[in-house]
Amino acid sequence: MSKQSFADLGVSNAVVNSLRERGIEAPFPIQRQVIEDILEGDDVLVQSPTGSGKTLAFGVPLVDLVQAEDPRPTALILAPTRELASQIVDEMEAICHARALRIAAVYGGVGLQQQARRAAKSHIIVACPGRLEDQLQRGAFDLKNVRYLVLDEADRMLDMGFKPAVDRIVKQVDSSRQTLFFSATLEGAAGKLAAAYTIDPKTHVNRTPKEKQGRIEHRFIHVSHDAKVETLVGELESPNRGRTLVFVRTKHGADRLVKKLSKRSKQVRAVAMHGNKSQNQRQRALADFEDGKVDTLVATDVAARGIDVADVTHVINFDIPEDQDTFVHRVGRTGRAGADGVGVSFFMSDQAKEMGQIAHSLGLHKEFEASGTGFRAESHTRQKKNRSGGSSRQNRPQGQGGQGNRTGKPKRNRSNASNRNRNSRRQRSR
């Protein structure tokens, strides 16, 4: 383990002391990789999984680059979900305070006017694309002074159909900006987006060391429609179960399932989380799940994106996932930080072929066939494309796509690489 400190990376004393007060002394690997490049004014492309410390990887240098006297807003962080946006603000608030900076979140589910007033006074805005466009169209504030742009979990923004909105937003940001692009993959559609938004970026790939990866036990359970809830209750009443995520496809399905669980089991404490819930309801549900007041979170895929909850022992696919990417996103919430986990997937007879194809594509054909139903896991006849137009990411080699500047686009000329002032960074050609 490197002994390199945040101070060694060039972080200010104010931020170092703020981190120390929270018990954060040594930077994570991804933070050691990128902080110096960001402080020197480089665009960066970072491939890193959730839970790797990426929020502080961009948050720490961003807070040092922004000055209290800068026109506001000076920095914009785009995130796919309000949960992730809220988490970013929570993570950065203390270090912002240490530098006399204001930070605000912009997302749906809360009042427009109060949110607009707070954002207009803030140096850093953390926003979901849809609500940000609403506020910009209302003239609540503008992006003409933004010099630092962060796209966090860019691949998920693509998956959720936000590319047109993100393109429109980025066009409103000055072309001389510094761009920090974070994604679970830098290939396919995400790589193309990265190449379009950055110039001569420094690329970093951060993967969890194999020795720290937990083992996930996969089980596939064939159920009838009538027995589905009872089978779930049996899984949730297992003495070896801890914090559990249960995935369903619809918002109403999540609410119905929580009601059924409360009627059929006194042991199971469940709460639903989906887009129809208010922001306060969603935050309370997540907080209760993290604090252990409830042990089961029933969620839709969109609502669960961006959530990073530690010590999830089980993920249960009550409704089968839409495709293999969704399966990976769901089950990947367990088996983290070296801990083992369990992924359980229900399927009915008319879903056996679809579930079997997903299992086969992920190398889980033996586990699927061990369900004892006689169904076989067969390969896809064709690979399903995601909403952004790229092919499914699972099982493709994770390279460093999107490196270099765009064709015909000149590099910015840096007059002094060590100067953190905005005026010393390279000029971006339109």
Question: Could you characterize the architecture of this molecule?
Answer:
By secondary structure, the chain is an alpha/beta fold. The protein folds into two domains: 7-207 and 398-424, Rossmann fold (3-Layer(aba) Sandwich); 213-369, P-loop containing nucleotide triphosphate hydrolases (Rossmann fold, 3-Layer(aba) Sandwich). It is 36% helix and 15% strand. It is built from 16 helices and 13 strands. The protein has a seven-stranded parallel sheet, with helices on both faces. A six-stranded parallel sheet has the order 8-13-12-9-11-10, sandwiched between helices. Helix 5 links the parallel strand 3 (103-106) and strand 4. Helix 1 (13-21) packs across helix 4, helix 2 (29-39) runs parallel beside helix 3 (54-65) and helix 3 (54-65) crosses helix 4. The chain starts with 12 loop residues before the first helix and ends in a 61-residue tail after the last helix.
Sum up the structure in keywords.
430 residues, 13 strands, Rossmann fold, single chain, 2 domains, globular, seven-stranded parallel sheet, 16 helices, six-stranded parallel sheet, alpha/beta, disordered C terminus
Low-confidence segments: 381-430
* CATH superfamily descriptor of the largest domain: P-loop containing nucleotide triphosphate hydrolases
Using the coordinates shown, work out and report the CATH topology of the largest domain: Rossmann fold
What separation lies between the terminal Cα atoms? 42 Å
Judging from the principal axes of the Cα atoms, what is the shape? globular
CATH class of the largest domain: Alpha Beta
Number of extended strands: 13
Characterize the biggest β-sheet. 7 strands, parallel
Structural class determined from secondary elements: alpha/beta
Number of domains: 2
- Mean pLDDT, nearest integer? 84
Nearest-angstrom radius of gyration?
22 Å
CATH architecture of the largest domain: 3-Layer(aba) Sandwich
The largest beta-sheet arranges its strands as 3-4-2-5-6-1-7
Continuous helix count: 16
Order of helices and strands: HHEHEHEHEHEHHEHEEHEHEHEHEHEHH
Q: What is the beta-strand fraction?
A: 5-15%
Helix amount: 25-40%
